[in-house]
């Protein structure tokens, strides 16, 4: 019989997920007894698999592509940020047997940018690229940092506009096309498109970043992404990939499950080493 509490990440694909490594490191560091694994779930089978996991005593799940909307539907209760995002990346079994859904992606991004990298968000002019699943989770926590404004650019403009509309009550946010972007307009650009996964770059005009502007790609890998290379060519003041966000969102999930906040810095170093 298993004595350790069971956790997992559900996705498809999930083979390259760093989450098992990250949570094992958190558990070791904090002395928590738990087991965490990655599991590939067939499309259309998310609810069935999650029901089985929790009915067999599983304590918590991370959810990755393409199941964050399914997890949103699955949860019995939702945090405010998950409700606003319409997407869930963390499920936690409650004392009464119900399942709580949260979304830690946005807070993970904000912690990495603000606390780890030391980039200011308040009062800044921010451009977010993409209007898909990855961006839904970050707009609420970003707007809570009181930026001057957030523009969401997308090839399909209507998606950017309707996404921005969902967050209007939290601050100045609007959708736009790539063609509509003009010179020196932004202090920070965050790439939330899936373009980097295919070695691609969104169609960005030159000189849209201010002189001391920063660029952040939510993707990460052993090599700089095409977006990071673009930003360096635009003489960005600082450029980062999304590895820190990955570890910070995991730390927030760990905290929800175990009530303990791990130290993220050594775990970021560990994951970085494993990429090379
Ligand atoms: P995810 O859940 O990873 O966000 P998604 O919901 O399929 O995936 O969204 C992918 C996002 O990346 C979309 O905003 C998409 O733009 P469109 O809605 O216009 O398709 C964007 N995207 C993907 N490849 C891109 C590319 N080569 N250039 C620009 N945007 C791209």
From TrEMBL:
UniProt-annotated binding residues for NADP(+): 130-134, 154-159, 218, 242
CDD domains reported for this sequence: NAD_bind_Shikimate_DH
Pathway: Metabolic intermediate biosynthesis; chorismate biosynthesis; chorismate from D-erythrose 4-phosphate and phosphoenolpyruvate: step 4/7
Active-site residue list: 68
Keywords from the UniProt entry: Amino-acid biosynthesis, Aromatic amino acid biosynthesis, NADP, Oxidoreductase
Catalyzed chemical reaction(s): shikimate + NADP(+) = 3-dehydroshikimate + NADPH + H(+)
Domain named Quinate/shikimate 5-dehydrogenase/glutamyl-tRNA reductase: residues: 118-195
Designated name of the protein: Shikimate dehydrogenase (NADP(+))
The organism of origin for this protein: Zhongshania arctica
């Amino acid at each position: 019989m298993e004595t350790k509490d069971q956790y997992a990440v559900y996705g498809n694909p999930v083979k390259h997920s760093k989450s098992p490594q990250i949570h094992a490191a958190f558990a070791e560091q904090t002395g928590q007894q738990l087991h965490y694994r990655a599991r590939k779930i067939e499309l259309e089978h998310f609810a069935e698999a999650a029901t089985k996991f929790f009915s067999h005593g599983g304590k918590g799940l991370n959810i990755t592509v393409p199941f964050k909307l399914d997890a949103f539907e699955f949860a019995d209760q939702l945090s405010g940020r998950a409700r606003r995002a319409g997407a869930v990346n963390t499920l936690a079994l409650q004392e009464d047997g119900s399942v709580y859904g949260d979304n830690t992606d946005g807070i993970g991004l904000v912690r990495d940018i603000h606390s780890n990298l030391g980039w200011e968000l308040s009062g800044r002019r921010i451009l977010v690229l993409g209007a898909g699943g990855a961006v839904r989770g970050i707009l609420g926590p970003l707007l809570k940092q009181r930026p001057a404004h957030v523009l969401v650019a997308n090839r399909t403009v209507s998606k950017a506009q309707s996404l921005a509309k969902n967050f209007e009550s939290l601050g100045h946010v609007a959708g736009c096309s790539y063609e509509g972007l003009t010179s020196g307009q932004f202090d920070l650009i965050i790439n939330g498109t899936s373009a980097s996964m295919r070695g691609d770059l969104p169609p960005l005009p030159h000189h849209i970043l201010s002189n001391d502007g920063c660029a952040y790609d939510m993707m990460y890998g052993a090599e700089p992404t095409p977006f990071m290379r673009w930003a360096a060519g635009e003489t960005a003041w600082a450029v980062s990939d999304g590895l820190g966000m990955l570890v910070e969102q995991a730390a927030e999930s760990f905290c929800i499950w175990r009530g303990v906040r791990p130290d993220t810095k050594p775990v970021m170093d560990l994951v970085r080493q494993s990429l090379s």
